[in-house]
Every structure is written in structure tokens, then in C-alpha cells.
Amino acid sequence: MHLFQYVQQLVYPFESPLRVPHRIVVVNSQLYITLNPKNTTVVLVEKGCPVTVSSIVTQSNYKDLESIVQLCKTMGVKALKFGTFSRYGRGQNLERAWELTTDQDREATELIAALSSKYKGEIDVYDWSADKVEERPIDLNHGGFACGAGNLAWVISEFGNIKPCVFLPEDRFTTGNIFDDDLLLMIQEMAKQGKTIILTTHQLELAERVSEYIILFQDGQVLTFQSKSELLKEYNHQLLVEVNVHPDDQEKKSKLSGIPQDEDSSWIMPLTTFEELMIEMRAQNIRIIDLRKREKSLEKIFLELVGEKSGNVVRSSGGVS
Fold first, then answer.
1. How far apart are CA 222 and CA 243, in angstroms?
2. DSSP states of 206-222 as a string?
3. Is residue 216 a contact partner of residue 285, using CB atoms and an 8 Å limit?
4. How many CA atoms lie within 13 A of 242 on its CB side?
5. Is the CA virtual torsion 111, 116, 118, 122 positive or negative?
6. How many C-beta atoms surround the C-beta of residue 86 within 10 A?
7. CA–CA distance from 304 to each of 133, 192, 193, 318 (Å)?
8. Would you give the DSSP letter of residue 42?
9. Organism's domain of life (predicted)?
10. What is the model's pTM?
11. Contact at 8 Å (CB) between 277 and 256?
């Protein structure tokens, strides 16, 4: 334990005792065999580390939450938080088996309130009840406590990380395993074997790196379905050119034919205009230090497609496969 003396917070999986659900959820299936979370928790408590357990309430356990409270209490756990589950990433495989209905959510809320009162002074069971929310900071937009700590949704990303919010970046919020498999390497290896991989992700940069075919969708509606090369070619019919000229020639550059500029001061022009621009710059003795051609990213294309559908370009909760 002395190796962890400077660690402020340690998060480790307390997964299902059932092997199949465990393998669906986590990145490293071997963790099922090698880690005993119950023993680990006891060791942490014995070493004086305050332990809080976060448990996902599902259709299979929402009637039996007291057994979870009792287990945590016997291990010396300081606090217990219950959260719900939303299908996303790997969680899609679980279909609706983990999601609570409105009636089940109401029943779980009442049970958690009763357990919070019953075990007061023994273990802090965080309460979902409406009459208690004013006592702690809440997310007014969602009517719940801070992300993942109350009855907001936990998600399981395509990387196998369990996160309290879909949009938390993987590289900054990773509650996955210390040892895991690299998703990109797995995709590349399976592709070499001639296998077809369907990846659902909000990370458009990742999709642009690894995909051959792209399906962009918003609010359940398909915006486009075509090969990545065809999609990029279709939406890059105009050329984006970033031109750096000699400092003494900046004023000359500003007087060139009225070519619209992108937000980063690159020029946007039809492909046929590029040659004309070079001729004009040569004629005015404009010295070029650096010239780069840029293509629209998949994210920019997605935003354009959303704008075409809605009449304006806004960031949306869409996705890509």
C-alpha cells in the first residue's frame, strides 16, 4: 500500500460476479479472474483509506439494494452511491437489460430513501429523494446530483471505460483497467484478418483515422452513408489553402482578388482558382514562405450536414459509425 501513498483517489471495478456480463462491459476480461474487489476494499479500509462504493442500479438488482448496503457495511465502506445506466458504446450490447423504467426508478428512489434512513450513522447511503436534494448541490438541468453520483446515468464507452458522462474525454477520464488492449491495434489486427468491424463513436477524429465507410447520423436519422474517400471528396470540392508570405508582402496579399477566408485566415477557393492565384501572386512579386493545402475534417463535414438539415450549423448530439 505504500506505493499508493501519493494517490488521492483510486477507482477500480467492482463488477458483476457473472462472467458473461463482465466480459461485455470491461476491456480486459482477465480482470474477472485476477481481481477480488471485496478483499481489495477490506485492505484499503484496514489501511485507513476512506472508501466510497458507486453501484449501478439495474433491472436485475433494483429490488435487492439492501444486500448491497449490507455487504458494503460489513467491509467497512464509508459511503455508498447508487447510479443508473444509459446505453452507449459497449453498453449497447446490454440492450435495455440495465435501464430502469419510470416505475422502477420511482420504486428504487423510495427504497434508497428508506435505506439511507435505516443505516444512518453506520454507512452514508446517498439519497435520491426530492425532499433531500436541496441539502446538496444538484444539477438543475437534469434534476439529479453531480454526474454519476445520484440518479444520473453512467455510461460504458467503446473503450470499456465506465464514465458518469458520455462527453468526458477518454484520455482525461479513464476508469478502465490499468492494463488494457489498444482499441486501434485491435481494429487494425482484425482488419488484416479480413473481418468487418462496426465502430459506433462520438469521436469523429477516431472514425476518420480508422474507417473505410462512414455513417453519419443525428437524432436517429442517417445523414449520409458512403465510403470515407467519397465523402471527403464530395465535401472538399473547394480548396482550403493556408499561405504564409514574407512580412514585407503582407499588404500586397490583402489586395489580392476578393477570396473569402476561413476562420483561421486560410483561403477558401474553387480548385480552378488556385492556379489563377499563383499567377497573380507571381505577377505582384509576393514571396511565399509556406503554403499548405487543407481538407475539411470529418467533424466539419458533419456540422455542415447538420446545418443543411436544420437550416443552420450548430453542434449536435449526433454520432458516427
1. 36
2. HHHHH-SEEEEEETTEE
3. no
4. 9
5. positive
6. 16
7. 41, 33, 35, 12
8. H
9. Bacteria
10. 0.42
11. yes
pLDDT digits (tens, 9 = 90+) for 121-146: 999 888 765 444 445 444 444 444 44
User: Among all chains, which residue has been given the C-alpha cell 435520491?
Assistant: 128
**C-alpha cell of residue 138:** 444538484
* Cβ atoms of residues 223 and 306 within 8 Å: yes
For residue range 165-201, list pLDDT tens digits in order.
666 666 655 544 444 556 777 788 888 888 888 877 7
Portion of the chain with pLDDT greater than 90, in percent: 3
Q: Please determine, for residue 290, whether its predicted confidence score (pLDDT) is greater than 60.
A: yes
Statement: residue 88 has pLDDT above 80: no
Q: Catalogue the long-range contacts made by 276-282 (C-beta closer than 8 Å, 24 or more residues apart).
A: 277/241, 280/256, 281/245, 281/253, 281/256
Q: Where are the domains of the chain?
A: 2-181, 184-232+298-320, 237-294
In 10 A of CB 122, how many CB atoms? 11
Residue 123's alpha-carbon distances to 66, 77, 134, 197, 220, in angstroms, are 12, 7, 21, 45, 43
Q: What residue type is 127 in one-letter code?
A: D
- Asked if 56 and 68 touch (Cβ cutoff 8 Å), the reply is no
pLDDT at 119 over 90: yes
Helix, strand and coil in the chain, % to nearest 5: 35, 20, 45
Nearest to 273 by CA among 291, 260, 286: 260
Give the closest residue to 25 by CA, choosing from 15, 10, 35: 15
Q: Which of 153, 152, 155 is nearest to 89 (CA)?
A: 155
Grid cell listed for 99: 435501464
| DSSP summary character for residue 100 | P
Q: Cell 490583402, residue?
A: 254
